[in-house]
Amino acid sequence: MRQSFGAPSIDWPYKFRAKLKMTKYEPLKRFYEAVPPEKGTPISEVEFLAMDFETTGLNTDKDEIITIGLVPFSLNRIYLNRARHWTVRPRQKLQDDSVIIHGITHNDIMDAPDLNEIINDVLEAMQGKIMVVHFRKIERIMLDKALKRRIKEGIEFPLIDTMEIENQIQRQVSGGFLNRLLGRRPASVRLGQSRLRYNLPPYTAHHALTDAIATAELFQAQMAHHFTPDDPIHNFWL
């Protein structure tokens, strides 16, 4: 399958080395010391970390993280015994419409720590991993802006977007003149709908850890069905 999941591939090892020279916050320096694999590394040799956030909303300029779910995995295994989940207290009031979606209430966050108090643990869990998300315009941007508000330094890291992979797959399987003539259109690329196409079980949505696990399983299924273990990581990371 043709692989083109966004902008031209970034040289992430080079970027990490450059960021390491500029970073002052020690936990962030340790994060950048764990340089990503070289771009030609087969995906079968890469360590991944599925990541999902629940937030106060989708406006990355003002909304904040309220839960974080992380689960490490490889192409063949998901390490649930090393999964992490945190609830954190945002610096803004919860919005009623977001509470309806994720079910996290004011009582749930009343005694929760600020992100400042757990960020070292989050960075340690991310260290040396390639992040995998479903819809890249949330986790990386939200974490970058949250860190800038707290430690005056942002964060950059490679990630793989299972939504974008599925979007490309759907465009290819529904493309062509005959499919257009028959009225075939790309199927939904939402997490739950995408999982169903690979016969993965339905999970309750909008829980950060559950969604992280669901994303890891989806990525494994996508790789098994459409790609090979020898495909290089730079074909997928963004």
From TrEMBL:
InterPro entries: DnaQ, Ribonucl_H, RNaseH-like_sf, RNaseH_sf. It is an enzyme of class 2 (transferase). CDD domains: DEDDh. Gene3D superfamilies: Ribonuclease H-like superfamily/Ribonuclease H (3.30.420.10). Transmembrane segments: none annotated. Its EC number is 2.7.7.7. GO terms for molecular function: 3'-5' exonuclease activity; DNA binding; DNA-directed DNA polymerase activity. It comes from the Bacteria. One of its GO terms (cellular component) is cytosol. The keyword Lipid biosynthesis does not apply. It catalyses: DNA(n) + a 2'-deoxyribonucleoside 5'-triphosphate = DNA(n+1) + diphosphate. It holds the Pfam family RNase_T. The keyword Nuclease applies. One of its GO terms (biological process) is DNA replication. Keywords: Exonuclease, Hydrolase, Nuclease, Nucleotidyltransferase, Transferase. Residues 47-228 form the Exonuclease domain. This is DNA-directed DNA polymerase. It comes from Vibrio palustris.
